[in-house]
Design goal:
By secondary structure, the chain is α+β, with helices and mostly antiparallel strands. The strands form two sheets. It has a four-stranded antiparallel beta sheet, with no helix packed on it. It is globular. This is MiAMP1 protein. It comes from Sphaerisporangium rufum. One of its GO terms (biological process) is defense response.
Length: 102
């Protein structure tokens, strides 16, 4: 009986924590122009290389995204996607990596 009570309490605590978790900004890279083909969503803090360059959508939800024309966020930042705005481009982009500021 005690074990069931503990599992229920742990489950309730996990649901409460997950329900109050904040959303993160997301960069969705598409293989083709016009948001076509395969896609990948990047939403982790720090540096990520971008595998597709056909088009993109940005969902700013608290964190900004620093865009680089080289892999591994090397060199000079080329552009910054706002932390509180959405953005998109239907045509190919040259960005090779992103640094999501958290």
């Amino acid at each position: 009986m005690k074990r069931v009570a503990f599992v229920s309490a742990a489950t309730a605590a996990l649901v409460a924590i997950m329900g109050s978790a904040a959303f993160a900004s997301q960069y969705v890279a598409y293989e083709g122009p016009g948001f076509s083909g395969r896609s990948v969503t990047i939403d982790k803090c720090g540096t990520s290389n971008i595998p597709f360059h056909g088009s993109y959508k940005w969902y700013g939800d608290g964190q900004s995204g620093r865009m680089y024309n080289q892999p591994n966020a090397e060199g000079v930042m080329h552009f910054e996607l706002a932390s509180n705005r959405y953005a998109e481009q239907r045509t190919p982009v040259g960005w090779q990596s992103i640094f999501i500021v958290c």
